[in-house]
Amino acid sequence: MDNLESQTYEVFEKDPIKYSQYQQAIYKCLLDRVPDEEKDTNVQVVMVLGAGRGPLVNASLQAAFQAKRRIKIYAVEKNPNAVVTLESWQYEEWGSQVTVVSCDMREWEAPEKADLMVSELLGSFADNELSPECLDGAEHCLKEGGMSIPHHYTSFLGPISSSKLYNEVRACREKDRDPEAQFEMPYVVRLHNFHQLAPPKACFSFRHPNPDPLKDNNRYQTLEFQVDVNTVLHGFAGYFETTLYGDITLSIRPETHSPGMFSWFPIFFPIKQPMSVQAGEKIRVAFWRCSNSKKVWYEWAVVSPMCSVIHNTTGRSYTIGL
Predict the structure, then answer these.
(1) pLDDT tens figures, 14-31
(2) What average pLDDT does the segment 34-44 reach?
(3) Which residue among the candidates 10, 109, 112, 129 is catalytic per the annotation?
(4) Is residue 145 part of a domain?
(5) Is 129 a catalytic site residue?
(6) What DSSP state is assigned to residue 176?
(7) Backbone phi, then psi, for 156, in 5-degree steps?
(8) What was the pLDDT predicted at 10?
């Protein structure tokens, strides 16, 4: 898994909605876990997994202050450049309340178990930044009955028509690759010139802590969409919704989009051959989330009104490294 660059962190940290929602989720969780009579003696262990440059550490500290509850934080981060910033924060602002850990969360042997794991590992399609694998791998650090924020997330997929997007993908052809490889990978895009052919539907869901004794994050789903106009299908737009804690949510799905949030754009899964669709016909798509010991990838195929090829078979054009 690659490390983020400095400017990427800066974009994330400027999102006002995202971190206020996280703070509210942590605040509610601390109030639920620690009754008033224990507020001076019960110290909740909070692990911020993938702490970046510290925004979730600050949100946790502010939530604890707001809730009048005591916490102890482990800020776990594998990017050595971000760790330098965390250590500076710890020295200048946080003090002994925060311990900075330079480590991959999946490999960390924690000195104690957490009451609460907090992370911001979601991508535009929910699981496409490997949040399920990372959090499953860190679950050995969580107490029995401990909580994860986010608690649950779901990806959504909807058919779209956009000749502009299709042509831009076609222009991404690379000299030394299969001539159609660019149609076998998703693109994070700010959607402008497009037509959503039907409302997006839920695709893959994940929950933390993972209730499954045998943790398997491979998925298969078929979705069907009713189309009301004559149109051309160029691919599928992906979104996500997450429940952080209780009724505190974040969403980029158009119907429920968190107002003012800009950390994520939608994701676009193209198809190689545009497909004519008549009013009244149904679009049916099959979607797979696949993995092996080293990587994760998606495969997708339209199965109605006509059959397309299976895109990105065996991850031949696009994978996400574990």
Answers:
(1) 888 999 999 999 999 999
(2) 98
(3) 129
(4) no
(5) yes
(6) T
(7) -130, 150
(8) 72
